[in-house]
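Archive transcription. Copying these from loose printouts into the bound notebook so they stop getting lost. Printout 1 of 2:
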Amino acid sequence: MKIGFQGEPGAYSEEAARSYFNEDIETCGYALSEQVFNALLKKEVAMALLPVENSIVGNVSVNMDLIYSEGVFAIGEMYLPIHHHLMAMPGVKISDIKKAYSHPIALAQCRDFLIKNDIEAVTDYDTAGSCKKLSNRYARDEAAIGSKLCAKTYGLEILSEDIQKVTTNITRFLLLTREEDIPEGMVQSKTSIAFTAHHQPGALLDCLQIFKKYDINMTKLESRPMAENPFDYIFFVDFQGGLRDSKTIECLKELNRDAHHVKVLGSYPEGVKPHGLGLKA
């Protein structure tokens, strides 16, 4: 089974896909999220796994916008703890390293470690991409920051593990399929929807009160601007409950009367959040 993801081989998204499916899959990486969606809709891949939220940097807006606009449906959710590792060519020592390459967010999260070791941070387009290019350059005074899967993929040696300052770095992923390929009878304990509210006082509050009325717990509320309608907003909501639950059915019926363009983005088993993570001294 082919699973599409965004990034180079060894990316955290590929690590998430292999973790979700216990590695019994074929992964296909694409440079852009748009290309992942295109591959899914053209049936080049069976499903796609994409990040939608990170505990430090927030939402992955491009992917949420694509999920809203394309004919896909979320059937799974997972949380991946992100561990940044410093890696180099085999035999290289940390004292040899002058520069470290990675995605700017990863570099920022590892800033204290790099300063402590007098290593210059150099921005690259992608964590896995920086590891791939380092392997091709065969540089002995350079390093890259990425996942353990990157080290395995590109024949690099990990010099130091978990070099990020904050260990509570978790990315949430959604598993997507085509709307016509939604499995029957699957467990649904969490649902994602999007809607727009009327332009009148208290319109959003009225919509949110519906969830309270039916005793439905919202786990996320986010607003996103609509590019085609300047200064209009889409509201994304995640809540506990499946589409077949009676409370959900009645809630969405009422929401459709009080809101515009209610769209169900997915309904899936609720993912298990990692526990026991804390700040690193």
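Printout 2 of 2:
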Amino acid sequence: MSNQENQPMPACSGDQPLVSVVVPVYNDESTINDTLTSIFSQDYKNLEVIVINDGSTDGTAAILDQYLDQYKDRIKIIDQSNAGSAVARNQGIKTAQGKYIAFIDADDLWVPWKISTQVGYLEQHQDIGMVYNTWIELHDSADGLPKTPPNATELDAIAEEKSGWLYTRLLMECIVHTSSVLIVKKICDEAGGFDPNLRRGQDYDYWLRASQATQIMKLKSVLSAYRIHSSSITKTAPQKNFEAMLLSKAVQKFGLRDKDGTAIGNPVMNKRLADSWESFCWQTFDAGQYAKSFSSAIEILKYRPLYYKGWLYLIASLAKMIVNAPART
């Protein structure tokens, strides 16, 4: 498959602003066809589709070649050695020529009116730099996306409680899903790139930084689907507590106050960090990684010294380490 990185794609004619769709793909031969079909089925036609093949070793490349033959004026394929989705998305952003950038993972899906709805909102609200939508979860091959759009009022309705200056809200929970996002490219430039040092939570870290540059609005409409696989990475124990890493980095850089003056206190943030370490502690303990669960329990207690579960994990992990220690001869 040829690398088209230096071959610009012409924008479609008309007054629609160009939207760059960034698709990282790695060994997704079973799902990439459905994902690309959902992109090219958009009723919004002024799209450039940038697929970054992140060193796939399965049949992904052959499938991408078929789309290159069919949509050569609308799709760009960039091949790179396997470096992870953060590097792939950064390459897509760098290559993008559009006013807006949409992200979609290689196993997720959009309804046909997704991009037109979001572009319409952002064009009418020039002070907003990012919009996302309600999504559903699909388990393996199940299909549950709506087949027809709701009426205009419902389509443009905003989920107020998850919209606005969202930094402090995001500190408490990642409420944005990557494949639901449409963002103004200049906001991407302000936020910087996705952090390749984060094995997980790269998107969470990115939305926290983007929330410093713009208000973020959520559409109530279901416009995308997140596919969950039985072998999903999110179901395995992580090597590090990346969530705590990115949260601590955000607080160190941006503090605990939002652009509109909304603030959270240190006790609230400490509980949030303790909760993150508790989740990580449970995952590592369940995976038999008792040294990690022991050190994680210490982190829990650093933020919540009197929390009984932190002490229970500490004692249980230490006991497992003692029992499993090799006998001395």
